[in-house]
Design a protein that fits this description.
The chain is an alpha/beta fold. It has a single domain, classed as TIM Barrel (Alpha-Beta Barrel). It contains ten helices and twelve strands. The chain has an eight-stranded parallel beta barrel, surrounded by four helices. Helix 2 crosses helix 3, helix 3 crosses helix 4 and helix 7 runs antiparallel to helix 8. It is globular. The protein starts with a strand and ends in a 22-residue tail after the last helix. About 45% of the residues are buried. The protein binds NADP nicotinamide-adenine-dinucleotide phosphate. NADP nicotinamide-adenine-dinucleotide phosphate (NAP) binds next to strand 12 and helix 10. This is Aldo/keto reductase.
Length: about 300
């Protein structure tokens, strides 16, 4: 496994694990997490909102049992107020909410610091100065090592690039969703790195693309029809997951944060990572997309 370091010194494994889709059953999830550790994956991505805190609790339990806290990095997210007795979710990026929520997340994760804390979305109308102030306080107090945002809104991203000292931006990024390309120069100019979520586009950029396209992309995606997707993906000789990983790792990406709902999926993704050469990819076969809203 190779590693990439961000400006605050966070050392990301080039392949991370997105924990959002881990099975609810602890024993099943434990097998996936054990497989990740044995593959030298050291970045684990979660959020307070995932299963209303239960995803953070699951990670906390696993790392308590496996005693790897100092060898791994945990990133969580904040900004959504959720309630145990209703499904209502209220957007709340206020200073007070962030300063309070971090304590709940740390408790659920069973740790006294978080490596990375991200704003889980955000709108241009938010009081962004308050949000940035809260993250800076947490960093100064040692409760978090670095902060970032998870956003696909160019106007929000540009504000945080200009006015904060964030380390990373999490964005969906892969051969098909190549919209982040329009922001790469601005992101690099601020020495910020990307956490690429959705690297296999829900399974479309894997050898199972045909059945995934049938099951999940009946209506196509972006400006691709299902037929066009299958036609392009079918033309590619190299393993699709290796191609999307080569594309991502030739960008200012700190970690590819893929999800896996079984040990076999994780093994397939790790095997693809082990074949990367950091350059050979099929980007030229795909459309040039760009964000069209929230500019
Ligand atoms: N706004 C945000 O901040 C945000 C939003 C989304 C995700 N995230 C983070 O990013 C992580 C990854 O996102 P994602 O889950 O959308 O990404 P993804 O890696 O594109 O999709 C994961 C899903 O793809 C399928 N898959 C993965 N590997 C496969 C393989 N080798 N063969 C066939 N299918 C495979 C599985 O679907 P099935 O389970 O259906 O088989 C798996 O659950 C999340 O876990 C979360 O931590 C953050």
């Amino acid at each position: 496994m190779n590693y990439r370091t961000t400006k605050s010194g966070l050392k990301f494994s080039e392949l991370g694990l997105g924990c959002m889709n881990l099975p609810l059953d602890y024993q099943e999830s434990k097998e996936i997490l054990k497989e990740a550790l044995s593959s030298e994956i050291s970045y684990f991505d979660t959020a307070d909102l995932y299963n209303k805190g239960a995803n953070e609790e699951l990670l906390g339990k696993f790392f308590k049992e496996n005693g790897h806290r100092e060898d791994i990095m945990i990133g969580s997210k904040v900004g959504n107020e959720f309630f145990q007795h209703s499904d209502e979710v209220k957007w709340n990026p206020s200073r007070e909410h962030i300063l309070n929520s971090v304590k709940d997340s740390l408790h659920r994760l069973g740790t006294d610091y978080m490596d990375l804390y991200m704003l889980h979305g955000g709108m241009i109308e938010d009081n962004k100065e308050e949000t940035i102030e809260a993250f800076n306080i947490l960093k100064q107090d040692g409760l978090i090592r670095a902060y970032g945002i998870s956003s696909i809104r160019p106007n929000v991203i540009r504000h945080y690039l200009a006015h904060s000292d964030m380390d990373v931006i999490m964005m969906q990024f892969n051969l098909i969703d190549n919209r982040p390309e329009m922001l790469l120069d601005e992101i690099s100019a601020r020495d910020v790195k990307i956490l690429a979520r959705g690297p296999v586009m829900k399974g479309l950029l894997t050898e199972k693309y045909d059945s995934v396209a049938d099951r999940k992309f009946e209506e196509g995606v972006f400006d691709y029809s299902q037929d066009e997707l299958k036609e392009i993906l079918g033309k590619i000789d190299a393993p699709l997951t290796v191609s999307t990983m080569n594309y991502l790792l030739s960008q200012p990406v700190a970690s590819i944060v893929g999800g896996a709902s079984s040990v076999d999926q994780l093994k397939a993704n790790v095997a693809a990572y082990q074949q990367v050469d950091y350059q050979t990819h099929d980007r030229a076969l795909f459309h040039d997309l760009s964000y069209e809203e929230h500019l």
